[in-house]
C-alpha cells in the first residue's frame, strides 16, 4: 500500500513539474517568436520576473484545483476540463497580479494567444501522460489487489467495472460470503465465509477491501474493519441500494451519520451560490446601466409604432422551489388571451413582424436581466415555464420538478444543446428536462461562461429554433 501511495504522489509531482516546464518553455519560445514577428515587447519587466510570477501562480492554481489523471477512473473529458479550469484560473490570477504590481501588459493579444496555447499543450501532455499510465497498468504495473466481503448486485457491478479494462490496474482476488453465490461472476473466486477473511488478509497482500454485508452481520464486519485499519488496508462500505437507485449518488456526512443523496448539487454549497449570484448582479447591473437604456429606447419606440399595446410583456412563471414570479420580456405578440396557455410556434399569427425579429435575435428576452437583478432568475439556468405548462408536465414527465431546485435562467444548457424553442412532442420536453438536470448536477462557473458563449454564437449563427 505504501508503494502504491508513493507511486501516486510521484505521478502528481511529475504532472505538476511537467506543466511548469511546458509553461516556461512555451513562454520563452512564444515570447521570442512574438518579438521576431512584431518587433515589440508584450510586457514590462524582465523575463525571469514574469516566469517566476507565472510559475508561482500556476503552482498555486494546480494545487488548489488538484490533479486527477492518476485516478483509475479518470476520463479524458475530466482531464481536459480540469486542465481548462486550471489554465483559466491561472490566467485570471497571473494577469491580475501583473496589473496590481509594477509590471505592465503592452499586448493583450500576446497573453490571450499564450494562454490558449498553454491550455492546448498542457491538455496534450496530460492526455499523453494518462495514456502512458494506462499502458503501464495494463502490463501489470501500479496495480491494486482487491477483496470483496459479500456478493450483492452492487459488488458484481463493481467487479465488472474493475476487471473489464486492464488499464484500471485492479486485481480482484475473490470474495467472502456466507455461501457461494451462483449469480456472482464465475471468474471471481469464492474464498470462504466472512469469519475466514481476517486469516486470508494476514496471509495475502491486499490493498482494498469492499464490504456489502448486511448490518445484521456487524459482529463479523467490525473485526475486519479493525484489522484493515491496523494493517494499512483501505476499507470501503458498499451500500446495497442498486435495486432502487441506478445512477451516481452523492455521499455526505450529517454529524456522524453517513447519507447518500440521489445527485450531487454543486449549487447546494453556499460558496458556489455566492459566486453565481455575485456574477449575476455585476453582469446584469453593467448591462442594465449601459446597453439596456439604448436598446429600450429603440425597441420601445418600434413596438409602439408597429403595434398597439404595452412595451413590456409580463407573465407569471415558476422559479426556484416552484415559487411564482413575474417574468419580463419585450412584447413580441399582439395582445391576446392565449398568452398564458399557448406556446409560440414557428409561424404563429400572434407574432408581430418586429416581434418575430426580436424572437429570432433573442432581443425580447433582454428585460429578464431585471429579473436577474431582482434575484428571481440567474443568467444561466433552466428556462422558466408558464404556470399551466408546469402543472401539466409535472404530472406526465418523471423528475420534471427537479429543475426547480435551482433558479431559472435567461439561457441554459438545454437551449445550447438543441432543446430550445417549441416542444412539439413530449420527447422534446423530456430531453429539455434531462439537460436541465445534467446542468444542475455538473454546474461550474466555467460551464456558465461556456453556455453564455454558446448562446451568443447561436444568435450570431441564426439558430433555426429561435422563433
Q: What tags apply to this protein structure?
A:
467 residues; alpha/beta; Rossmann fold; 3 domains; five-stranded parallel β-sheet; two-stranded antiparallel ribbon; 15 helices; 11 strands; 12% strand; flat; membrane; EPS_sugar_tfrase; transmembrane helix
**What is the number of strand segments?**
11
Shape: flat
In DSSP terms (H or I, runs of 4 or more residues), the helix count works out at 15
Helix content: 40-55%
Q: Please, what is the average pLDDT?
A: 86
- Strand-residue proportion: 5-15%
Walk across the major sheet and give the strand order. Answer: 3-2-1-4-5
Number of folding domains? 3
Tell me about the biggest sheet? 5 strands, parallel
Structural class: alpha/beta
The secondary-structure element order is HHHHEHEEHEHEEEHHEEHHEHEHHH
Tell me the radius of gyration.
28 Å
Low-confidence stretches: none
Intertermini distance: 60 Å
Written account of the structure:
The protein is of the alpha/beta class and 467 residues long. It folds into 3 domains: 2-138, no CATH class; 144-246, NAD(P)-binding Rossmann-like Domain (Rossmann fold, 3-Layer(aba) Sandwich), CATH 3.40.50; 270-460, no CATH class. Helix content is 52%, strand content 12%. It contains 15 helices and 11 strands. It has helices spanning 2-38, 47-65, 76-100, 108-138, 153-163, 197-203, 218-230, 270-289, 291-306, 353-361, 368-374, 387-396, 413-416, 426-442, 445-460; strands spanning 144-149, 170-176, 190-192, 208-211, 234-237, 250-254, 257-261, 312-318, 324-330, 378-380, 409-411. The strands form 4 sheets. It has a 5-stranded parallel sheet with strand order 3-2-1-4-5, with helices on both faces. A two-stranded antiparallel sheet has the order 6-7. Helix 2 (47-65) crosses helix 3 (76-100). 24% of the residues are buried. The mean pLDDT is 86.
